[in-house]
């Protein structure tokens, strides 16, 4: 049976969310790479704003980030999609699946920190935005340190 889930792609910024059918771990690897590339793009833009805060620009970027916080990482990381099984441009450590509850807890922390960043965006407090961005980035780093191979 094919699983369906939503991934926001750069082109979907205008078109809305795109539904992808994922039938195999290989397709999940491709979908998560697309997702995390988009997330990385948004993180870069937010990082620039954390250094030179512009409330209007922050609000715009937060609106682009918010849909990414609704994705379900279980769909991106099915069993059989680690670098041990699929080595083609894949950095997901097998530890994800042996510590899946911790991995999902890190996803929850990521989403909570992302929601706080979205809430801080557009406000007049540049320090609050920068702090929220730092916490959000820290959740990314915590997961990368434990569950992603370096480039």
From TrEMBL:
Gene3D superfamilies: Cytochrome c/b562. One of its GO terms (biological process) is electron transport chain. Heme c binds at residues 140, 143-144. Keywords: Electron transport, Heme, Iron, Metal-binding, Signal, Transport. One of its GO terms (cellular component) is periplasmic space. Coiled coil: none annotated. GO terms for molecular function: electron transfer activity; heme binding; iron ion binding. This is Cytochrome c. The lineage of its organism: Bacteria, Pseudomonadati, Pseudomonadota, Alphaproteobacteria, Rhodobacterales.
């Amino acid at each position: 049976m094919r699983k369906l889930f939503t991934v926001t792609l750069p082109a979907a910024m205008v078109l809305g969310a795109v539904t992808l059918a994922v039938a195999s771990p290989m397709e999940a690897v491709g979908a998560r790479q697309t997702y995390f590339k988009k997330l990385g793009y948004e993180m870069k833009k937010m990082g620039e704003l954390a250094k030179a805060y512009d409330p209007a620009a922050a609000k715009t970027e937060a609106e682009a980030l918010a849909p990414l916080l609704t994705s379900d990482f279980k769909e991106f990381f099915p069993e059989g999609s680690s670098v041990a099984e699929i080595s083609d441009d894949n950095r997901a450590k097998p530890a994800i699946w042996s510590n899946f509850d911790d991995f999902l807890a890190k996803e929850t922390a990521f989403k909570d920190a992302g929601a706080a960043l979205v809430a801080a965006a557009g406000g007049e407090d540049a320090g609050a935005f920068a702090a929220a961005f730092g916490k959000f980035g820290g959740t990314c780093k915590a997961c990368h340190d434990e569950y992603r191979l370096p480039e």
